[in-house]
Amino acid sequence: MENQENSSLINYHPLTATAETTVDVAIALMNQNFTSYLVVLANAEPDSPVVGLFTEREIIQLIASGVQLSNLSLASVINKELITINESAVKDLLFVNYLVQKHQINYLPVVGKIGNLIGIITQQSIQKHLLEAMNTTEINPKLTALQNLVEQQAIELKTLNDKLKTTIHYRHLAEQKIKATEEKMRTVFEAMTDLVMIINLQEERIKNVEFIPTNFNNLAHSNELITRILEILLTEEIFITNWLEEIKKSLIKNQNINIDYNLNLADKEYCFTATISPISEKSVLWVARDITARRQAEQALEKSEARFQKLVANIPGAVYEFVINSNGAIGFEYMSPSIEEIYEFPQEEVLENPQIMFDAFDPEDYQSYQEAVAISSQNLAPFSHEWRIFTASGKLKWVQAKSRPERRENGDTVWYGVLFDVSDRKIASQALQESQTNLADAQRVAHIGSWKFDVIKRKVTWSEELFHIFGLDPTKPEPTFEEHLQLIYPEDRDAWYQKVNDSLLTGKSYTIINRIIRPDGEIRYIEGRGEAILNDAQEVIQLYGTAMDITERKQAEIALRESEEKFRAIFDRGIQFVSLLQPDGTILEINQTALNFAETTRESAICKPFWETKWWTISEATQSELQLAIAAAAAGAFMRYEVNVIGKNNQIVTIDFSLRPIFNQQGEVTLLISEGRDISDRKALEQKLALREALLNAFFYSAPVGLCITDEEFRYIKINQQLAEINGLPASEHIGKTFPQVLPGIASSLVPLYQQVLTRNEAALNQEFRGEVPSQPGVLRDWIVSLFPILGEDGHSRNVGAVVVEVTERKRAEKALQESAKREQALTQVIQKIRQTLELSEIFSATTTELRQLLDCDRVTIYRFHNDCSGEFVAESVADGWISLLEAQNQNPQLTACILNKQECVIKKLNQSERENRTTNYLAVADIHQSELTNCHIEILEQFQSKAYLTIPIYSGNQFWGLLAVYQNSRIRQWQESEIKVVLQIGTQLAVALQQAELLSQTQRQSLELMKAKEAADAANYAKSQFLAKMSHELRTPLNAILGFSQIMVRNKSVSSEHREHLEIINRSGEHLLNLINDILSMAKIESGQMSFNETCFNLHQMLELLKDMFRLKAQQKGLKLNCVIAPEVPRNIKTDESKLRQVLLNLLGNAIKFTQTGYVTLTVFLAQLEAQSAEDVQIVFTVTDTGPGIAPNEITTLFQPFSQTQTGRQTGQGTGLGLAISQQFVKLMGGKIVVESQLGIGSIFTFNIKAKLAPETEKNIRLNTQEVICLEPNQPTYRILLAEDIKENRQLLVKLLVPLGFEVREAENGQQAVTIWESWQPHLIWMDMRMPVMDGYEATRQIKAHPQGKNTVIIALTASVFEEQQPAILAAGCNDFMPKPFRSEVLLEKIAKHLGVRYIYADNSHPITEHSLIPTLTPEDLKVMSQEWIAQLHQAAAAVDDQLVIELVEQIPETYIKLVNILINLVENFRLDIILKITELCLKE
């Protein structure tokens, strides 16, 4: 059996070769025999020794090195350190595997006794045998049983050891107790359990025995034992003799004697130990202790120890007791002899020197062992660990320790355990693991998974790789056969199932390629194989299978197919001419591009000599050249040259032609590949590049700037003449030299910049440099240098190009320009300071100071002349260290009189010259002593400490005013033209300043006169305004009473029809008078400029509808058709002056209806089409068209003048002629314009436009109800209304109007009374006249609203003013609303309804309600006056739709909040409990 195994393990016929064999021959032999290795022998003799191995690894290394293989022998390339094994050692499979793994080799030669080759073992054969060995079930059960036995014996040993420790512990306690008893014998006898006797001797015999009472007497059988002892002492000779000898010995030696003895009593043997202590010459103390139990324990311990030793001797491991002291010291308290079999150390040596155990550790395992011990010690957890050791003989072993720790009272930790030699198990386990790993790796690398289907158990087992192939989690259970079927691609499922099913039925193996679907949706190709296992009855019991993922192969096949198609497409459609030739030049294949070029077919070219095709028929020389090239290529040479060929239409092109030979394995040329690329365009481009290069050189050498190119070492490569001249050296002296050599003065600045350009590959432009050139030392010159990188073929900078422009002269010009600009800037600052003020003293001071700093001189003065030609210094700026001329003038007023009084005065000449030419006249003296000045003048200048000076005249208008002088005291000075120009400019600015100062003086006088005139005009305007306000109040107040009382009387049912008609006449006349007053006052406001633009947001469509309703009755009475056309794009809500827009439309519509007798009146509204109209701004156009009499052309020009009427208007005798004039001004105020078109007898069209803004949704206007109000609806609170009005008639009017309806009314004659009544009565609403004595309505309103309770009181202003400008002031005072006088009763009642929520009963018993009361407005702010508890109750009542409970809660609201009461009642009566529910919910959330 072993021989058969060895024969399968060893390959006895490996491929061999001698050491002299060359490498190329060896490789050929290996290829022919399909083997990856070859055994090298020393010679060709039969028993030749093995000298090495030659494998694929050496082949790869040699090919990679590029050496000539035919010149190398195997002896020169094989590894001399060969590992072999004797044939006798092959039987130990584990040792063979260990040898292969240790040396990491794949092939192990087997040699005989004389070193001759027997065969070879491969790593694959070892793994195969190990796998078979693992499956024999011979090793693992033995190891497992052995390990179980060791663990069981360790447990028993631990139990016995525990008992032994307990016994030893009790014995130790007993000994301590005996010693304590002996020391305190006399004092503790009564507590003793020992038998204590005093034995007295006489003539060397026992005379008597005296028992000392102890607890021994209380023990069971104590009396019997005492009796038995007395019997022995007195009768039994053997005992007496022995005991008597011991007693005598104790007395003679005067020392304690211990004896042990046994006593039999009642079939029980008692063991005693007695101590004999001499107490006198003839007496001893006998203390006997019953040690029966201890003896029994000792006997049991001896038996246990014997059993333990027997157990230890039979355990296949070493039993140990290992301790780590609290101080860290280690040691073995016990170690069984078996340790010598494992470690090869004697037991005694280990106990004496425990360190030798740890020195045997494999260094790689010691740290993990220490960590395991530390964890076990810390947690007192069982210890189990494996590690490697080197025995005393050098063997490598695996050992395993299992133990349990305990902590002693002194802090020591002790482990009781067993140490096993597990080397064999480890080797087997490693071999099995490696085999399994190799198998898994092989499956993973090959993408092959395996499965097994147990037909009987219907169980499927998958390998890990099969899980990966199917994209499943290997940690999850295998899919069932049915689940496996679902993983097959649907179209392949039936075929796969059929194959597997046939195999199950017939037992035949199968192969199939199918697709699978992974859980992530990916489709893979699988090549599956299956093989059935049959039982004795030829029934299939198991089905084994493999699955190889061949997706990549399938994809490669598809890709190969596509690649071939692409290759053919590329081959045929390539831009190159490509053909395949036999070595003799015969065409085998040719691409379509070449065929198309020659306009020939493939059939006509194949199998034809290449030089006979059309391409090469351009000339015989061309054909001959091709034949020679083909011959050279057939000999193995690569040929390439440029040649002209001919194509269709005899087109001649130049191609880059090449012939590439293809060799077989024997190095023979078997094929030629010819390629031709059309390079005609490239040739033309090369000619262009050559021309361009010539142009660039021409530019380089003739450019007007310096140009050069340098290399990486900063050496000049190329330079033009311009740069050579700039550098001051010939061009030839630059080439090959570096910067430091050519330009040493500026090289330190240039080199870093060049390095930066080379490093960063970035240009450095317009860099300024200053320095010297060698040809002109000491002369500084300026250059602007631009550097740019010149890239090499690798994309990195290899050279630097430079452009150099000399800017020395430009720099000088720039410097002069900068100095000039600096002077101009300073001059500008001086002029700005002059213009900052019109105070001459400030101007003079600033001018002299700034000018002295600008010119850097010692003194600047301003000298003023008087009418008598005398003068004085009025301003001076002097540097430190020089006298002040102003102070000198104060001391000597005649300081300058001597030179001014002389006829030859230079100043006078300067004055006269200045009159002739003011712009250039000046006096500049560089040196006073070298000038033509008079001696007197020089003396004066010397007194001024001046050596040079410059002076110019100053004029105010045409009058010579004075001088501006500049002095240089420290030195003579040549005045520059630019400096003279600056002084002249400042002198001009001083002249302007003098004129401006004069104008300021005149302007101030005129302003004073205008201010007085304005004050007079303002006083007159104020008087006019007061008059208008007074007139408005005085005229409208009586009208209020007239119209009001007439309306009340009309409602009286007792008034006769005649009187009613008279009252209506009074009412119409009053309305007419009111309109006249409004027009006159509006016109007065326009003329005085007091008309203002008051923007409000309103609903335009609703306003137009109200106007239509207002005029409908009048139109119907006259038989006219009234139309109102509004374009769809007209917005509903706009923001503009609503009042003025309404007034304009009232005027235009009123005139149209008034003057039109038949036909129609149409109001049209649309948007103007503007190109640049913003999203928020609109322009609205209104047209009023009528079919009236029309207007004559000569009257249209005066139509919009105040108090102007047409002929038709004058005939009617109505109106003031102000309506259109007012309308025109109102339209202009709203940003628009009004125009008219009219024809006599046809009609008129008035058109105007206004600018407006889009506005958000606004509250609907109150629609007046013209029905007569009879009274208040029942079930409402009593509303308290206070009338604050100083005119008694107006109060009476309101009382007559309100009291009959059910309101409770009180009166106040002024604001003070109103405040007093409000404090005590708390009215719901106050009608407040704004103009009253004592306290006006503004102050009364402010005081009421300032009080917390006043915020709930509604105050509506009553005013007789038509000035809309007063409305903001009224609202700012705290009024909630306002109503002008005279008022209409309908409007007044609707105002009350709006603010208090009042409901009325009308004459026809209907209940028209305002827009505000139809849908009452309730907000969370309204409810915040009540408590949260009340709001919660209201919310619950609304949610329960309990209107009665809501009414009861509303009754709890204080009367001061009457508006809230009315809103809630209206909501209940209109069944809108949903609004109450929503608002209360918001309140509760807040």
Automatic annotation (TrEMBL):
Report the InterPro entries cross-referenced here: CBS_dom, CBS_dom_sf, CheY-like_superfamily, GAF, GAF-like_dom_sf, HATPase_C_sf, HATPase_dom, His_kinase_dom
| Keyword presence, Kinase | yes
Q: Name one Pfam family in it.
A: PAS_4
Name all Phytochrome chromophore attachment site domain ranges: 839-989
Enumerate the spans annotated as PAS domain: 322-373, 692-761
| Keywords assigned | CBS domain, Kinase, Phosphoprotein, Transferase, Two-component regulatory system
User: Which reactions appear under catalytic activity for this entry?
Assistant: ATP + protein L-histidine = ADP + protein N-phospho-L-histidine
What NCBIfam families does its record include? sensory_box
Q: What is this protein called?
A: histidine kinase
Its source organism is Floridaenema aerugineum BLCC-F46
